[in-house]
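Revision sheet: structure tokens.
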Amino acid sequence: QVQLVESGGGVVQAGGSLRLSCAASGSISNFNEVGWYRQPQGERRELVADIISGRTTLLSDAVEGRFTISTDNAKNTVDLQMNSLKPEDTAVYYCYATSLDGSDEYWGQGTQVTVSR
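Predicted:
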């Protein structure tokens, strides 16, 4: 059973930075997609960033230029570096991955990020 465990959330002032990390129970190379979604309170879950087939990186318009996604194959982690944080970035952030054939999705338990004014 695949497990994804997030860490690194917390409270930060606007303009600050946080780094989220997602540890996978297996090799990152066993996934087709790895990435991050977020869900602000009372709103729908939305894509933040992901990496497809280890090469193609996508970032939402809302975070382009401020967030960076990366993987560490040696540690089997997917990291999200968040800079210039804004109050509207406040949300629960979820790590996710898909199997190589896309038939299965895996989700972490989520980590809260709160950006104060």
